[in-house]
Amino acid sequence: MLVKVNRAAASALLTLLLIMGLAPASKAQLGITRPKGQELLDGIVVKVDNQIVLRSDVELIYAQEVARAAGKPLPPDLKCKILQSLVLNKLMLAKAETDSVVVEDKTVNNEVDRRMAYFVQQIGSEKRLEEQYNKPIKALKDDLRPQIKDQLTQQKMQETITGKVAVTPREVAQYFSRVPKDSLPYFSTEVEVGQIVIPAQVNDKAKQAAMAKLNDIRAQVLAGADFATLAKQYSEDPGSAKEGGYLGFFKRGELVPEYEAASMKLEPGQLSPVVQSQFGFHLIQFIERKGNTYSTRHILLKPETGAADASASAKQLVRLRRQILTDSISFAKAAKDNSSDKQSSTNGGLLANRQDGGSRLPLDKLDPAIFFVIDTMKVGHITPPMPYRTDDGKDAMRILYLKSNTPPHQANLEQDYQKIAAAALNEKRNKALDEWFAKNRGSVYLEVAPEYAQCKVLESTDNR
């Protein structure tokens, strides 16, 4: 929700931004339809130009707030506030359409895949997810895609409104001074942790085995076997295997270069030779061209990595660790030049706090795999190489570095400037949004269902 911050709410906002961790995405946040048998009675409660707010949109968020409150009383106008926030988001969508603010399909598809992969991980498997919602993965993605597109469009529209907003050190100090001293949050232990990740290398024997298997499958297809049937049997791409390897239509530039280059050489029905990409080895069957898009199906095989492959990565990390400890190279430079984890390598190897973008992480909210390693470490120490599984499921090795350990303390500008600055910036961005809403709320057609007529959704933003 979009929440305006006024003087009286400054302490609450600071506490919210500084203390709350990034919660795992809920089913509602992921945009997944409720399981069969749990549907809400639905209907349109607000129209904002050609955008609509459904009763289920309000009720789902309200149910989340009730669960979060755990029996504590809720504001009597909570549903109105929820509706108001949803309407303001729809206003941004309506204006994005008239202002030609567009999110590319490739960006939407990437985000759909990312969220679906995360949700599969939370549920345990694709099969369990499909059983829970009584739909195949492809159908769940189709349900998710328009909601993700709306969310990304809202974010892009909001960026056009607030992207140039910044705060000065003076504004940060003024913001902090408005927080009552007896309301300042108390922080638990925070740490800065760095990592250098080096993936296990696939040996030539494993590569040759994968290529040989795909060439055998290719021969079966050329002899009359059904490509889709073989894809369901052999492909290691979980997103397309159950669809017979079908990937759908894509524009040029949306698939990895090696895959696209091989596909563009084919005519409908033709098979590619074995193609290697960052994902593994592919056998591609071209289906059709339609305008500036094309469709294919593929069978993906991923060569297995083994202990011998990981040992090469471990040796490289041992060498880097020795250089860092003897001051031949800094940890930050070693991470930048060698780590395969791009998100942390560009930050000197430090893991980022996704809540405020800083590098200090609450000790009690660390991933257990990290917590139980660094909990007994001294500042400046670096672990020996340890096995690691990357977010995309690849085997790797990594070393961890404890850069700092900040003891429990009450929030202050000296130790917590970055977090306080983030809260101050959020307040200033919300003010910019308030001004934009005030300017644009009269430019749209608005219709509210009688059951929500008492909610003054666009009369004022002061009570958001």
From TrEMBL:
Pfam families: Rotamase, Rotamase_3. Residues 335-358 are annotated as: Disordered. GO terms for molecular function: peptidyl-prolyl cis-trans isomerase activity. It comes from the Bacteria. The keyword Isomerase applies. SUPFAM superfamilies: FKBP-like (SSF54534), Triger factor/SurA peptide-binding domain-like (SSF109998). Residues 188-288, 291-401 form the PpiC domain. Its EC number is 5.2.1.8. Keywords: Isomerase, Rotamase, Signal. Residues 1-28 form the signal peptide. PANTHER family: CHAPERONE SURA (PTHR47637). This is Peptidylprolyl isomerase.
